Amino acid sequence: MTATSGFPSRQLGSAGPIVFPIALGCMGMSGMYGPADERESIATIHAALDAGVTLLDTGDFYGVGHNELLIRRALEGRRAQALLSVKFGALRGPDGSWLGFDTRPAAIKNALAYSLTRLGVDHIDIYRPARVDPAVPIEDTVGALADLVRAGYDRAIGLSEVGPETIRRAHAVHPISDVQVEYSLISRGPEAAIFPLLEELGIGVTAYGVLSRGLLSGSTHRRRQPTFARIFRGSAVTIVNQRLIDELQGMAREKGCTVSQLAIAGVLEKLRLTHRAHIPLDSSNCFEDVLQRGDRSALRHRLRSRGCSLRLHQL
Known about the structure:
- Helix content is about 40%, strand content about 15%.
- The protein has helices at about 40-50, 65-75, 105-120, 140-150, 165-175, 195-200, 220-225, 225-230, 235-255, 260-275, 295-305, and strands at about 10, 20, 20-25, 55-60, 85-90, 90, 100, 125-130, 160, 180, 205-210, 280.
- Strands 8-5-4-3-12 form a five-stranded parallel beta sheet, with helices on one face. A three-stranded parallel beta sheet has the order 9-10-11, with helices on one face.
């Protein structure tokens, strides 16, 4: 199966669906990073589908249900083109506050019922807890999800931001399709223990934050958001990060692409070499031929020559 842009499709782990290697993360379309324009959001979803993207990633708590309703409107007449990945379990108050997590079996079934209704579908393609509920053993959570798979309401089970022990315990109950982790050229933590374990178990990787929440793309909007302001303060870490950005900007100019495209291509290539994986983005750009074989060593060399402490393993 080959996607329309020329990217070959991939299976997400050994237990997940066949997907285009780049997906669309929809969280920012429901006010999570500030005001969003609904018409622009729907146009973005349509542009992603037109470019060959097959998987949309959402959460029932994004905009307290708004994101799922938005996706439903965007998919009118186009449902067959999209797979849906939904996170659940995060509790919200009427004032938008975060109240914790609930992944008890009864709560999971209740959350799924509401998601199916808001999305206007009869099943979810990948259903995953947003985080681990410390009050509920992961075996109970995954066991309840496995019941939903057998009943036909869910096609695959995913995880999000979990440690190695939790991954092993969950996978022992039911095959896990993929684990969502934050990963970018400057967020490399999963390389140490998470990626090797996922490779061992045949679990896919879904990387988010590949632009480091606007840092790598130079987003001035992110700089104005209090949540992200600390990222841009003048510290030793920021200086090192700026060196990385400077080198990426220089290489992007040479390639005739944007820094965002180069950063995404770098992560995509890293995961292509080691995993059956894909990357959810809130952009519909395509990145064919941005990072070629000779560019990998060149990018490594240029980052190191500027004293950047962050390495591009296996690029």
